[in-house]
């Protein structure tokens, strides 16, 4: 919350003026700057000016805005209840002025193939952007801010010398950011759609998404009301569709008329209007630093988030709130600017991840057009991963129930507890205990630890429990503690475990993951130094090419043709032992930079023979191994393949190649693809975040037409339900949640009030199927108010 302790500051106590800093890179000591320049008169800059002036009336605040007061981009602005709450607390006068002009609504309409689906309970508030600027202009003038409209700001160096603080709120094309590019180190990422901001002179009765399938490709309309008689209308389409439709040759008026014709039904035959509207390509802005000396970035100058989640103005206003608060709370300007960035950066990063997921969903909209109508609507609503199955159930249970019925959920059955069939194996729910290396075997033999570890998770309700990567040879181990299937003794030990799972947890399947470490072998146990070479007792490594995993790692030998034959046979023999050991499913590990993954990635496969070069050649050996294993693996039992769908490194496996890899394995008989990412090269730069790998599974599922297992920071049953119901995956594999709670799946069922066949408690555990009672903590409610003795008058 914004502190207001400076709002009645005594000018005499704070001083009326002080010399401006002579060096912009040596800012003033105090964090309560008396002279501040704001570059940019958009909502973020104006609100910053108003807050700083309100908190300390003795401040000299100057706003430089090169445009006229009513010049603005776009038409309407959407603000969340959370943002409005911050505004109300910080400046009730602004809040009351905004509230008087808000239009509010609850519904989202999704129109696709002449069918409209409505979801309610979303609570939107919007007003015209011009009105917002008028309110902020008036507030700034009332407070005594010096508004210099139609005035180009002086160079930032000059402003920095003359002021205690310079706030660069000069937008996505920020000249300030460019002036200090070597310090802020911005990254601007263009995207694949063109869009144009327009308006209609009537109010939609909901936030409307409309899909138009034209002869040139898919186009979409985003529309929402911002006043009782006007709506924002954004038309968006892929670049190639935009060109094919001829928009690149139309002027503003022609584009506006053409958009109105395409979306004639949504507009009820009414026209659209423009306001210096131009087709634009959205760019995501990220800066490594947000401040330099006494210059600080705010709003779109610091970061952008795609309009499809409506966060541009919201982020700028919240930046202003945080910056003003940090300037009040911190003793020096450097500390204040550091605190501002520390507070806002994680929030912005989370919003940008959600925005990226949303914009990419719309970029790939054509991928989902064939989904059942209600699933398509649910998919659109949950595209950013911020709105989930449970969110929608709370907002609109009727809509969510209709999506579940269309999906095939029996009454009272969450999507995650619907069955799924792979070849001859029917899984009772959609939860998989992901393969997790335990590094606890002796001579490759799984022992009591593995029995307890895998047995506990099998009792915990998941449909499928996967072993760690089980190595096909002593040389194929990652560490001395890795389990194997290269001896009969190891096979017998695994049989003990599968027998327990089948007897102790009927209905639970257990799968084995077969792999070979390749160049990532002969390393220490994870907790002794992950990927670090053994101090002694090393064994020689082999790989597609003689490339060490990282500096200091052992250099592997390049596999010869004869050695390729030997490795292929090792996989085949291990698969035979796995079948004899009673595993229900076999997964071939072709991910994470291990041997078979090393063939697939161009970063690790530099061969010039028939096993290197093009993707077709890089696939050759992994497919040969797959065929050898499939030949001996029982026909009724399914086989899956785990792949790294991206290397998170320049020049590595691309998302397009991942689809082709999945298609190739499916053509050879893979029943599903387990879609992971990365861990192929040490210099990777993954984009971590909630469910961050699932878009790759989504793409493979829809484009390759093969069932997929999604992995990667899926941490809640709500995530699982959302991903399954949206059609982004068929199964969800979770690792860390099952380390935290072996009974994660059963607890997920209990928390959702589900007690059906998709989550069966083992008989000895049924008494624990409800949370244990705890002591009462509520106190008696006051019933009577007792007064002193009655006084007679």
UniProtKB/TrEMBL annotation:
* Domain (NADH:flavin oxidoreductase/NADH oxidase N-terminal): residue spans on this chain: 416-749
- Annotated stretches, region: Disordered: 1-33, 763-793
Extract the InterPro entries matched here: Aldolase_TIM, FAD-bd, FAD/NAD-bd_sf, OxRdtase_FMN_N, YqjM-like
Q: Where is the FAD-binding domain?
A: 36-352
Matching PANTHER family = BLR3436 PROTEIN, NADPH DEHYDROGENASE C23G7.10C-RELATED
- What is the name of the protein in this document? Bifunctional salicylyl-CoA 5-hydroxylase/oxidoreductase
Species the sequence originates in: Streptomyces salinarius
């Amino acid at each position: 919350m914004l502190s207001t302790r400076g709002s009645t500051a005594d000018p005499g106590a704070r001083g009326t003026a002080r010399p401006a800093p002579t060096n912009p890179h040596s800012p003033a000591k105090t964090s309560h700057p008396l002279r501040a320049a704001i570059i940019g008169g958009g909502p973020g800059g104006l609100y910053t000016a108003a807050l700083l002036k309100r908190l300390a009336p003795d401040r000299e605040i100057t706003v430089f805005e090169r445009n006229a007061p009513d010049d603005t981009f776009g038409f309407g602005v959407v603000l969340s209840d959370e943002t409005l709450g911050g505004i109300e607390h910080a400046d009730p006068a602004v809040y009351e002025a905004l509230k008087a002009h808000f239009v509010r609504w609850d519904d989202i309409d999704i129109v696709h193939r002449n069918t409209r689906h409505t979801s309610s309970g979303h609570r939107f508030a919007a007003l015209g952007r011009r009105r917002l600027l008028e309110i902020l202009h008036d507030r700034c003038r009332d407070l005594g801010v010096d508004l210099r409209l139609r005035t180009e700001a002086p160079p930032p160096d000059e402003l920095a010398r003359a002021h205690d603080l310079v706030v660069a709120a000069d937008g996505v094309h920020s000249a300030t950011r460019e002036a200090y590019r070597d310090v802020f180190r911005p990254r601007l990422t263009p995207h694949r759609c063109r869009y144009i901001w327009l308006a209609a002179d009537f109010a939609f009765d909901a936030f409307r998404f409309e899909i138009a399938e034209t002869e040139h490709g898919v186009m979409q309309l985003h529309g929402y009301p911002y006043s009782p008689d006007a709506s924002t209308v954004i038309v968006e389409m892929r670049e190639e569709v935009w060109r094919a439709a001829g928009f690149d040759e139309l002027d503003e008026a022609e584009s506006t008329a053409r958009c109105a014709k395409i979306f004639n039904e949504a507009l009820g035959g009414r026209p659209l209007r423009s306001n210096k509207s131009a087709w634009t390509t959205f760019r995501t802005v990220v800066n490594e630093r947000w401040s330099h000396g006494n210059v600080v970035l705010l709003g779109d100058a610091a970061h952008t988030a795609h309009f499809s989640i409506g966060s541009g103005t919201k982020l700028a206003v919240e930046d202003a709130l945080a910056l003003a608060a940090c300037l009040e709370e911190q003793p020096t300007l450097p500390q204040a600017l550091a605190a501002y960035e520390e507070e806002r950066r994680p929030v912005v990063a989370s919003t940008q991840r959600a925005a990226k997921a949303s914009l990419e969903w719309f970029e790939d909209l054509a991928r989902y057009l064939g989904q059942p109508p209600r699933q398509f609507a649910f998919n659109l609503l949950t595209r950013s991963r911020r709105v989930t199955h449970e969110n929608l159930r709370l907002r609109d249970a009727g809509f969510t129930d209709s999506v579940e019925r269309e999906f095939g959920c029996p009454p009272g059955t969450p999507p995650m507890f619907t069955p799924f069939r792979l070849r001859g194996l029917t899984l009772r729910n959609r939860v998989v205990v992901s393969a997790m290396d335990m590094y606890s075997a002796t001579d490759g033999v799984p022992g009591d630890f593995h029995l307890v570890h895998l047995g506990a998770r099998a009792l915990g309700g998941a449909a499928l429990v996967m072993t760690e990567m089980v190595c096909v040879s002593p040389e194929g181990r990652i560490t001395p503690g890795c389990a194997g299937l290269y001896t009969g003794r190891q096979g017998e030990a695994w049989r003990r475990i599968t027998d327990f799972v089948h007897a102790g947890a009927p209905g639970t399947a257990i799968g084995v993951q077969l792999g070979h470490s390749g160049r990532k072998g002969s390393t220490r146990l994870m907790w002794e130094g992950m990927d670090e070479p053994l101090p002694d007792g090393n064994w020689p490594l082999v790989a597609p090419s003689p490339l060490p995993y990282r500096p200091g790692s052992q250099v592997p030998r390049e596999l010869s043709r004869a050695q390729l034959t030997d490795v292929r046979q090792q996989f085949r023999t291990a698969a035979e032992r796995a079948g004899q050991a009673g595993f229900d499913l076999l997964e071939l590990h072709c991910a994470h930079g291990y041997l078979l993954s090393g063939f697939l990635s161009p970063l690790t496969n530099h061969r010039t023979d028939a096993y290197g070069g093009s993707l077709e050649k890089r696939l050759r050996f992994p497919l040969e191994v797959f065929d050898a294993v499939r030949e001996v693996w029982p026909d009724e039992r399914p086989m899956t393949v785990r792949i790294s769908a991206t290397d998170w490194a320049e020049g590595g496996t691309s998302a397009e190649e991942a689809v082709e890899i999945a298609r190739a394995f499916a053509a050879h008989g893979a029943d599903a693809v387990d879609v992971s990412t990365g861990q192929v090269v040490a210099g990777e730069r993954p984009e971590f975040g909630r469910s961050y790998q699932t878009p790759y599974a989504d793409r493979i599922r829809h484009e390759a037409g093969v069932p997929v297992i999604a992995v990667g920071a899926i941490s809640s049953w709500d995530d699982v339900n959302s991903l399954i119901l949206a059609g982004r995956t068929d199964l969800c594999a979770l690792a860390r949640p099952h380390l935290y709670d072996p009974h994660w799946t059963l607890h997920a069922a209990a928390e959702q009030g589900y007690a059906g066949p998709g989550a069966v408690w083992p008989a000895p555990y049924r008494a624990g199927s409800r949370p244990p009672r705890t002591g009462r903590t509520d106190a008696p409610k006051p019933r009577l108010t007792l007064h002193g003795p009655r006084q007679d008058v």
